[in-house]
Amino acid sequence: MSSRRSRKTFNPGKTIARYSIMRLVGQGGYGDIYECIDLDNHQFYAMKVENLACKKQGLKRELDVIRHLHSKFFPQFICYGETSKYRYLVMELCGPSFSGLRRILPNHQFSISTVLRVGIEMLKCIEKMHSLGYLHRDIKPSNFLLRASRRHPLALIDYGLSRPYIDPKTHLMIKPRSKPGFVGTTKYASLNAHTGEELGCVDDLYSWFFSLLEMWAGRLPWSVSADKDEVFNAKMRTDIPLFIKDMPSQMTNVYRLIRRMKREDTPNYPLLYSFLLDAMRECGAKWDDPYEWESIDTTELSPVSLIPPAGDKPVIPDNLPPPVMPRLDLNALVEDLPSTTRSTSSRRNHGVTSSRRRHNYV
């Protein structure tokens, strides 16, 4: 992998195919992202560039995924190409990420109103990706970009680690591999990612939940280290309900619902939306509350305007179940246990644990 510091970046005016580089807007592990202009139609786009010598070929992996993501929840795909030295991927130009925005905010925190509404919009992106048969596997604030829209305010990006989990021919879940290894970003990764398990939808949700906690608190309890083992141990020790005690109480139910999930489960997205909307009611948050980026100067941070057009309204999830935690099906849990332990375990309502559940947080 080429180092971000050692990679040579393009100067403004550099031309690749029919696109002229305007400025560098971001850097990833294997490539750089530029604002560019199409010299034919004079439209502005984002261009991700990767050196052909890069062994990982992250752009080709991204291309395989982005061709299947035809939705407003993702940047519009424009084209892919190769020169004698580079691969490039051109897509819709969006605004800054939430990690970029958080860095310029006082105390590096968003309001609870913003966190809850953005949490709903992030979850829409994740739900759509899962419905298309893909896991993202690197959900984090820096992979959600802003648009100047209340209807489709976010775009989920960066599919270099994404992987199909549904077989497109059989429409069944792909059989898990045995210990494929760590994947993701240490700070936001689930415990299952830390122990090298095959990931499922639940692991994207853990990363989503951790992202919301960081946006609200300005940090995560394990942010003091980047070492995977140290972060893993810190996550094991952390009392999440205690950490979020000052958030709306329904956030505890969001966490509890995610904890109950197994790798092969389809998330109960409607109930998650219901919990978040109830949390908004609990703290008095409104959909027309101003967002932080609508009242600060983001000129240097964003290549596009972040002010939505007049009359642009959010799409609020509806027809949802009541925001109530479902009862555990203890009989179903007992069926997962070895037959020799069922008779004793079934009498311990508080002590039954699914043998298929791999890891829980405290």
UniProtKB/TrEMBL annotation:
**What SUPFAM superfamilies does this protein's entry cite?**
Protein kinase-like (PK-like)
> Which positions fall inside the Protein kinase domain?
19-276
Cite the residue spans of the region called Disordered. 337-362
Taxonomically, the superkingdom here is Eukaryota
Among the Pfam families in the record, one is: Pkinase
Residues that hold ATP according to the record: K55
* Enzyme Commission number, as recorded: 2.7.11.1
What GO MF terms are annotated?
Answer: ATP binding; protein serine/threonine kinase activity
Q: Which top class of enzyme applies to this chain?
A: transferase
Regions of compositional bias (Basic residues) in chain numbering:
345-362
Looking up InterPro entries in the UniProt record yields: CK1_Ser-Thr_kinase (IPR050235), Kinase-like_dom_sf (IPR011009), Prot_kinase_dom (IPR000719), Protein_kinase_ATP_BS (IPR017441), Ser/Thr_kinase_AS (IPR008271)
Keywords associated with the record: ATP-binding, Kinase, Nucleotide-binding, Serine/threonine-protein kinase, Transferase
The family this protein is said to belong to: Belongs to the protein kinase superfamily.
The protein's name in its UniProt record: non-specific serine/threonine protein kinase
The organism that produces this protein has a lineage beginning with: Eukaryota, Metamonada, Parabasalia, Tritrichomonadida, Tritrichomonadidae
